[in-house]
Amino acid sequence: MLDLRAYRVKEKSIAVVGLGYVGLPLALSFARHYRIIGYDINEDRILALQKHVDPDGELSTDDFEGTDIIFTTQLEHLAQASTYIVTVPTPIDEFKKPDLSALFSATHTIARVLKKGDVVIYESTVYPGCTEEECIPILERISGLHCLADFKVGYSPERINPGDKEHTFTRIMKVVSGCDEPTADFLAALYGKVVEAGIYKASSIKVAEAAKIIENTQRDVNIGLMNELSIIFHSMGINTHEVLEAARTKWNFLPFYPGLVGGHCIGVDPYYLAYKAAKLGYHPQLINAGRLMNDNMAAFVAKNIIIALINSGKDVRQAEVLILGFTFKENITDTRNSKVADLVYELQSFGVKNITIFDPHANASMVQKNYRLKLASQYKDRQYDVVVLAVPHKEFTTFTEEELKSLLRSPYIFFDLKSVYFSIRKNFNYWSL
Predict the structure, then answer these.
(1) In the beta sheet, which residues pair with residue 323?
(2) With contact defined as beta carbons under 8 Å apart, do 147 and 126 qualify?
(3) Do the bridges between strand 408-416 and strand 384-389 make them parallel or antiparallel, or are there none, so unpaired?
(4) Which of 53, 150, 237, 390 is the most exposed place for a label (fewest CB within 10 A)?
């Protein structure tokens, strides 16, 4: 049933369902060794991929060369696969609850073409138990087949880090698991052909799901601690950056830093674990506290911008604010769960009307659609009362002191959230997290 040789000689093919930040690099890496069917319901995305263009800007045309892959929205093409890898997004909804609609939709689609002997592998981030308690029953109900007896299911959590050119798909150790030992072995061999960094075989699907969740929950809690320390140190008149630089001289100090925590992983995954824990009757205190702290940091920054404007004698309602960067982190196009949007909304709630947002990487139409905010096409045509370096894209990290001052009216109020220009702070009315 689980014969890897059939995939190596391309008698059988693999479908990757969902071709975004996770699915596309996985599909192209696999397509150098196996026959791949790249499936997505977004027709515009498929048309771009057929032209060897990554709509997310993460991969170049060269990354498509030497691959055995077709890109399709057609169910009949999907039906030709024997293994299905699900890489669709699993965000949260407006109430910060897991939104599994894309996952369930993909599962329904696969179930319609599922055959005896097929394998379904989930990579999407979920809470422990979701694959076996939610997805497998859907596969069984719609296909009329039975897991273990007729088809197999595995889970291998994605570890894609957008914008990271060092820790790419093939260079990150891969955790795999299966509904039984042969399936786990099959996943280990399947991914092992592609992933250079090695394979770790988890003892169960739930263990693999939990491992993924705590990777980002751990980071979220640690950043939450740094954000709380930043608030405390600001009230003491101490610069957090200086404190952290001093503390990190100890060999076992963990180098976490304060910041706006957005994106589709750190700002989302802890809610999945908290949701599942609450379902079981336990309300996690530390995880929820970290989430609350990080979700409120945009408000903290906005309040300090208003204070800086008032202290400088400026009219908040007439002040012009420039915000540099909108994506959830530097040098990527991904604007999902952008906390810069929260910063803008907070400033608007204080009466700030003149806000210019510039980001050379973000898609202006997507920002308008998802956040009802307009990105400027340029920003150097006038001066501002405050400049906020929110996301340190490479385009924003090489300003000279004179260039920064040319963007500002005196006094030079500069909010450098990640302390990029800490060395010249004394020449500005400077603030950093």
Answers:
(1) 357, 388
(2) no
(3) parallel
(4) 237
**Is residue 71 a contact partner of residue 19, using CB atoms and an 8 Å limit?**
yes
Token representation of residue 327: 């994506």
Tell me how crowded residue 200 is: count the other CB atoms within 10 A of its CB: 14
Per-residue CA distances from 406 to 17, 375, 381, 399, 419 (Å): 49, 21, 10, 10, 19
Q: Does the pLDDT of residue 162 top 90, yes or no?
A: no
- Count Cβ neighbours within 10 Å for each residue of 341-378 and write b for 16 or more, e otherwise: bbbbebbeeeebeebbbbbebbbeeebeeebebebeee
Collect all residues with Cβ–Cβ distance below 8 Å to 74 and sequence separation of at least 6.
none
Domains 4-212 and 238-431 are alike in CATH topology? yes
CA separation for the pair 162, 330 (Å, rounded): 10
Residue numbers annotated as active site:
265
At residue 57, the pLDDT reads 86
Say how far residue 74 (Cα) sits from the centre of its chain: 28
Closest CA to 307 of 209, 390, 202, 415: 415
Boundaries of every domain in the chain? 4-212, 238-431
CATH superfamily of 4-212: NAD(P)-binding Rossmann-like Domain (3.40.50.720)
**CATH code for the part of the protein at 238-431:** 3.40.50.720
- Comparing CA positions, the residue from 371, 321, 378, 374 lying closest to residue 341 is 371
Span 192-212, mean pLDDT?
Answer: 97
Give the per-residue pLDDT at 1: 60
Q: What span, in angstroms and rounded, lies between the C-alpha atoms of 400 and 218? A: 37
